[in-house]
Amino acid sequence: MSEQIPGQAGTEVPVCPRHPGVVSYVRCQRCGRPACAQCQRPAAVGIQCVDCVREAHARTPAVRTVFGGRVTHGRPVVTLTIIGVCVALYLLEMLVGGGLRSALAFAPAVGASEPYRFVTAAFLHAGILHLALNMYALWIVGSIVEPALGRWRYAALYLISAIGGSVAVLLLANPAGFAWVTAVVGASGAVFGLFSATFFVLRRLGRDATQILVLIALNFALGFIVSNVSWQAHLGGAVTGALLALGYVYAPRERRAIVSVATTAVVLALLVVLAAARYAMV
């Protein structure tokens, strides 16, 4: 006795190859296979199956911004992720107390033995107002810089600018003074790096960058007016962000990828060397 297998040649009832047993008389316009309602995708002409649509997307060259970032639709994912982590850590700190800040905040005295603090400090905040101001600024500039540069360069810009802020605190602290053991927290250094990147993005596009310069100047001045604000971290983040942005924004189109990777590696290595040299002098 012979049997007929659903979906194979010779059967009278066509079934979806991705969902065996689901009958479908609608066929993909590209491959001709049956496609059930779950696998159907509207096309310019007729219906295509999800596999053909995925294959077509994979073959389509990625659309890039003028700076080489992959054009994406929707919200800035990296920016929202950073904001989510900062908010989550703030709420967690409220639940567990100051132990979290003691374990993750940066201070020059502990940076050599616990180097992860150069980064983790940028995700902690000293109060709800501190958190709100930094997250608002991050959302404003992140919505501009992330789509322009693309996700990986934007993430590198944020993280390395955060490290640059901590390194500046280290370089400008007196080992015999109170600043050497004072904990520093906040995303301000990283945000200042994004401020610098925004300036170069606007300049590269031929747009007026006066407003961002005023914003940088006003926020930097606050470090000298408002108590308990680390102007050193702001300065370090801004300089680091500027160095990275120069490589990202002005890289030749044909060498954009290698220049961006090289810029990231060189700036990060420079920060490591500066931190190591500072600790070697203590």
TrEMBL record:
Transmembrane helix found in the keyword field: yes
One GO term (biological process): proteolysis
Domain Peptidase S54 rhomboid as annotated: residue spans: 113-248
Cellular localisation: Membrane
Keywords assigned by UniProt, alphabetized: Hydrolase, Membrane, Protease, Transmembrane, Transmembrane helix
InterPro entries: Peptidase_S54_rhomboid_dom, Rhomboid-like_sf, Rhomboid_protease_S54
The UniProt record lists the keyword Cell membrane: no
One function term, GO molecular function aspect: serine-type endopeptidase activity
Entry membrane topology: Multi-pass membrane protein
Chief location: membrane
One annotated Gene Ontology cellular component of this protein: membrane
Pfam families: Rhomboid
SUPFAM superfamilies linked to this entry: B-box zinc-binding domain, Rhomboid-like
Transmembrane segments: 77-98, 118-142, 154-173, 179-202, 209-227, 233-251, 258-281
Family membership noted in the UniProt record: Belongs to the peptidase S54 family.
Protein name per UniProt: Rhomboid family intramembrane serine protease
Source organism of this protein record: Georgenia ruanii
Biological classification of the source: Bacteria, Bacillati, Actinomycetota, Actinomycetes, Micrococcales
